[in-house]
Amino acid sequence: MSFKAVVASSTVRLSASEERVMNVLLGDDMSGIPAAEVAERASTHESTVVRLAKKLGYRGYPDLRNDLRTDESTSEDHQVKIMRTESGYDLSAFVADEIRALKRLPHFVSQEDLDAAALTLHESSTVYLFSRDDEKPTRDLLARRLRRLGLTTVTLGTTPKDLAERFISFDEHSTLIALALREAPGQLPTLVSEAARRGGKSILISDVPGYRFRPSPDHLITARRGDDTEYRTQVIPVVLAYALQLAIFHLEPTKYKAVRDGVDDLTRLLGGADEIPLRT
């Protein structure tokens, strides 16, 4: 079985020390690490590691390590597989796959859920964005879409020191948006927990419907991507980024149109040229 699948489906509540152990175990190449070393990395006792394993339904830490090996061997298998062997690599098959994913998007994400997340962002003074390196293109596009509305954004890094330096200003007027595609970043549980402790809000965008993230974010937006399990583009998360921007805009169109016009005016003032249409 997959350890990450067990974590995703778990509903158990974890203590602060157990959360730290979980973050360590979600790192890379952990199957060969004994419980004592995991505890040392998490600044806790070995008994906490064993207790977490049993909370998740394992008989003990050795069984948990077996599932860690499953995750790592699966990851290695993915690296040698030929892309798009399931759905076909040709353009027509690729486009058809993305169209199917787009058509079912409203089935996974209701307008009510999108509007609720948009309202949270509308009421925030600062938005903090977090993702793994693989999702940076979508994260950066979402940050730019929000800045076009006049929202202040802070893009979080991935190293502990950089995360701490950028997240230290998070307060009750802030919102965290995080991407968890395929799997959640190891630091994400701590960030969501800290956002709640500071009185702010959190929004999680995932591609695993039914995903039960702990601690629970204020808003969980999940939608399947393409059907090919080995090759999934970021088309769906990108569309969600634009949909969020639109939903925020329509909460107060006059205000946000004025911001957009102001951005355009300032762009011209700073020497930016208007887009020049192509001519035949």
Automatic annotation (TrEMBL):
Gene Ontology biological process terms from the UniProt entry: carbohydrate derivative metabolic process
One Gene Ontology term of the molecular function aspect: DNA-binding transcription factor activity
Domain (HTH rpiR-type) ranges: 1-75
Gene3D superfamilies found in the cross-reference section: Glucose-6-phosphate isomerase like protein, domain 1, Winged helix-like DNA-binding domain superfamily/Winged helix DNA-binding domain
Segments passing through the bilayer: none
InterPro entries documented for this protein: Homeodomain-like_sf (IPR009057), HTH_RpiR (IPR000281), RpiR-like (IPR047640), SIS_dom_sf (IPR046348), WH-like_DNA-bd_sf (IPR036388)
PANTHER family xref list: GLUCOKINASE, RPIR-FAMILY TRANSCRIPTIONAL REGULATOR
UniProt-recorded name of the protein: Helix-turn-helix domain, rpiR family protein
